[in-house]
Amino acid sequence: MSGRSPTAVRLFWTFVAGSTVAFWYGPPALAATGAASLAILLHRLDRPRRFRAFVRRVSQRHAETLALRRRQECFVDAYGNTIEDGWLREREYFIERTLLPQIETRGFAEDAETRYEVMAEIVERVARRYALPDDDGSPEDGIAYERFCARLLQESGWRARPTQASGDQGCDVIAERDGLRLVVQCKRYGRPVGNAAVQEIAAAALHWSADRAAVVSNAGFTPAARKLAGTTGVLLLHHDDLPDLATQLPREGRRLLPVGGR
After folding, report:
1. Where is the Restriction endonuclease type IV Mrr domain (predicted)?
2. pLDDT in tens, 103-134
3. CB neighbours of 178 closer than 8 A, spacing ≥ 6?
4. Do 67 and 38 fall into the same domain?
5. Cβ atoms < 10 Å from Cβ of 235
């Protein structure tokens, strides 16, 4: 029976067992066999609904995070176009790293192979429907945005101050808390931030003897920026992340990786 679907295997053995029992018990056993076969078929026909329901349950457990990431990774560019590239990458990451392992454990692996669009649609719907608090209305002016980010850090317990516009060496905000010094570059953009900002803040961390460095933006980051941030240890943040930043930083091994080193 190798190579056949689980449903076909169940129907085969139900028929074999039913036929054997019917030899002794006659029509009642045949009726029971028919009922069992019908139940197996109905269970198979209901499989797409159960698959969708399972994907929805898993997604809803992460609804708040999905909704927040969708808001963070979608933005309107200078031409009025809504750019969703970052969110589409985030949605794919969630499906591959969170949904698929649980789907395979639950026995829906064969369904996932042909229903990727169904999963993406469910994740999208869950993210859109979750009611986040109103957007903070972050300022569009670059200098005002730097002060806005500093204020968010101050309100969450950091001693934060914007640097001078000149001579900042790529650092817009310096923040300290619990013996940790953080340097931040703030980018209020209409497009994803590239790796130049990561390079600048990594160098600024060395200049200011900082423990950690971060780039904060309203508009997400390019794949190249994310790759370089992974190498240098620079944090890539949306300004929504700042209020909870202190609780997310590890207490040990917090030093930034040296530029160009490991």
Report:
1. 144-245
2. 999 888 887 888 899 999 999 999 999 987 76
3. 246
4. no
5. 19
